[in-house]
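Hi there,

I know you've been waiting on this one. I reran it after we fixed the sequence typo, so this is the corrected version. Both the input and the resulting structure follow.
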Amino acid sequence: MRYRFRSMTALVAVAAVGLAACGGDDDASDDTSEEAEPATEATDAAEPADEPATEDGADISVALVLNGELGDEAFFDSANRGAEQAATELGIEVRVIEAGLDAAGWEPALRSAVASGDYDLVITGTAPMADVLGPLAEEFPDQQFVFYDAALAADNIHSITYAQNEASYLGGVVAGGLTSSGIEGTNDDLVVGFVGGLDLPVINDFRAGYAQGAASVVPDVEVLTSYAAGFGDPAQGRELAEAQIDQGADVIFQVAGGTGFGVFEASTGRGTYAVGVDTNQNPLAPGTIATSVQKNVDVSLFQAIERFAAGDLPFGVTETLGLAEGGVSLAMDEYYEQIVPEDVRTLVDEARDAIIAGEIEVDTTLGS
């Protein structure tokens, strides 16, 4: 049974704030979020946090500076959930600062948080923030940072990256399995699609794993690839997806933030399938989104804050979190089970186990 796309009007509004970084269902809390105030590779040495916090974390204050806004139902909402969890479970004071989509506001927002001296730990993320964070980390050597979804080598930065290619491989297995399954919504062409928000290395890392996973099921599969002009244009996402559907694609993986909502709309309207990104987006279009490639930013940030509070978060290093560490995963819920045939789900389980065991080396665009 196919279902209608849920609340497309609301999601288009959300898309205006959806800058994908390509990363619970609770909405962002007003108590932890405020608008911004005006204003690589790891090093070998690892420095622990200066002093352990109190056991309940009550003496620790943390700022999470987002180079975007909440409400994307993906990457930034996931980061916020991790911060909220730390505030709730660890008793840590957490302030979430939305720096907005305009890059001109990112440096003032981050500088304001750092220069205030109010925060023991400042967290920010995504590759576009590297040029902002790098100089500030050097200017404020006593401030400690967590930088997620990208890496910077500095003695006062703990970097977190994600093996999104591993979870994307599983998404590709789903796509390859569906396009060759003959189920309703597929065609005889062995073609799947990929829509990225921009042509960036991290976006292409998703594509690399996806294409490899699809080819593991259908060796001669064709992967159509399109890039939008950004992460907040669902109309363009729909246009790109419809063009791929016209070329035979019956499963499209979107790594495009708010632009990807248009992919979901196109797939729903044309009766084909889609793969979501960053968080479990399956409920956004039941019967259309077969699964989602999850980048578990919330889990990683909560764990980083917890380790910092315990005095055991190393600085000057980069940690990469993949399937084995729970940093990435594939959404396997009732929506997944409704769409994906059992034999394909078995292939996914086998591929996941093989990747974790090191039996499958997943392609990447980010180097070793």
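Quick highlight: The chain has two domains: 9-162+297-321, 165-294+330-356.

Best,
R. S.
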